[in-house]
Amino acid sequence: MSKTYDVIVVGVGGMGAAACHQLARRGQRVLGLEKFAIGHAMGSSHGLTRILRLAYFEGSAYVPLVQRARDLWIETGKRIGEPLFFETGALEIAGETSDHIERSRQSCLDHGLAHTLLDRDAVERRYPAFRLPKDSIALFQPESGFVASERAILAHVGLALADSAEIRGQEPLLDWEPTAEGGVRVRTGRGTYEAGRLVLSPGAWIGKIVPALAPVTSVVRQSLGWFAPLQPELLAMDRFPAFTLDVDEGGFYGFPLWGHPGFKLGSPHWGGDPFDPDTPTREPAPAHEAVLRRCLERYIPAAAGTTLGLKACLYTMTPDEHFIIDTLPDHPQVIVASPCSGHGYKFASAVGEVLADLATAGRSRFDLSLFSLGRLAERRERDGFGNSA
Length: 389
Ligand SMILES: Cc1cc2nc3c(=O)[nH]c(=O)nc-3n(C[C@H](O)[C@H](O)[C@H](O)COP(=O)(O)OP(=O)(O)OC[C@H]3O[C@@H](n4cnc5c(N)ncnc54)[C@H](O)[C@@H]3O)c2cc1C
What we know:
- Its EC number is 1.5.3.1.
- Its cofactor is FAD.
- It is an enzyme of class 1 (oxidoreductase).
- The chain is an alpha+beta fold.
- It folds into two domains: 3-45 and 150-216 and 320-383, FAD/NAD(P)-binding domain (3-Layer(bba) Sandwich), CATH 3.50.50; 90-142 and 218-317, 2-Layer Sandwich (D-Amino Acid Oxidase, Chain A, domain 2), CATH 3.30.9.10.
- Helix content is 27%, strand content 28%.
- Strands 1, 2, 9, 10, 11, 12, 18 and 19 form an eight-stranded mixed sheet that branches. Strands 6-7-5-14-15-16-13-17 form an eight-stranded mixed sheet, with helices on both faces. It has a three-stranded antiparallel sheet with strand order 3-8-4.
- The longest helix is centred in the N-terminal third of the chain and has 18 residues, at 63-80.
- The two termini are 37 Å apart.
- Bound molecules: flavin-adenine dinucleotide.
- Flavin-adenine dinucleotide binds at residues 10-16, 33-36, 42-45, 50-51, 172-173, 201-203, 205, 209, 222, 224, 253, 266, 313-315, 339-340, 342-346.
């Protein structure tokens, strides 16, 4: 006979771990199934840090969700006795002709967020590690910073276990089916389990588990690096913010020194070709190192020391780069969560809460229309975009 639960969560990465925690906290009988070890480096959430920006050029509608996420990161950090969110401020830098800064500023105005606009000289005075192009402008948002991402997954899983969730690592879902009673039955190599609700948060594997989503999601490999700082004092937490930098060479992001002797730099614009997440290794693309190094030498020379390490990580993109958080149209007992497109981690704590709300109450207090499956179907009909991975 199958073991039964209230909710089964498939994929215990950034989003799934938060969902397990939020569900178990409410007294739900939860089973979390994870394909690899808890806290692995094959998906999208590994690495020590993720930027949390409250100013949101991707859309003002994200701000209430990221504000809630920030509160939850702080609250959970207090509960485990170790901070998960670090308020270093976040600096977004772009050319004055780009609309990036204006869109971020608008999101600050819409939601009453503290912010400061800075010209190039002001940025360089405040943060002498930067050497920016003449026409640069920047928006600084002081309540932003970064989240300790790997640590947060382990924290959420630890809290879920303490609240009696059952978490099974190294146990991939093989398939699932609806039951006659309106629930779900899932099968793994080790057993069959039933539940009233199923949360699918498998990150880059979403198109494999829900084939209908394969045409509207594509997986790309991102490379990032850690570089020996030449002037570490300019890159310390109290002197340097989390940042994004849009320059002629592309987009880059980075962090103050924290938890690793190297300066972490990534570039979301060098994703390369579609990537099959079942590829057994995660080798970084060799060409990316040169791109990252050029950026450091030109714009952040204080961090342009030797390469300490390179890693690859996966983005799961939607065509409009907004998330997918919705129930499946034919199976309302199944909730799909693919909050990535390269900017999802900061939201994970709040997405866990949203998923728990959807699983237990059938609704969330947040407006999720931006993340609906319906908007992708409409767009597909209109633009006819195809599958890329
Ligand atoms: C290099 C890089 C930098 C980023 N920087 C930022 C940033 O600064 N700020 C930000 O907000 N976001 C950032 N992001 C995006 C963010 O990291 C992702 O949005 C987030 O990690 C996605 O979490 P997830 O839970 O959807 O995926 P994951 O954490 O990958 O979790 C999915 C899990 O599902 C498991 N799984 C898959 N198939 C199965 C199966 N059949 N059975 C059981 N389990 C399964 C996987 O093994 C995995 O553990 C970045 C991403 C990358 C790659």
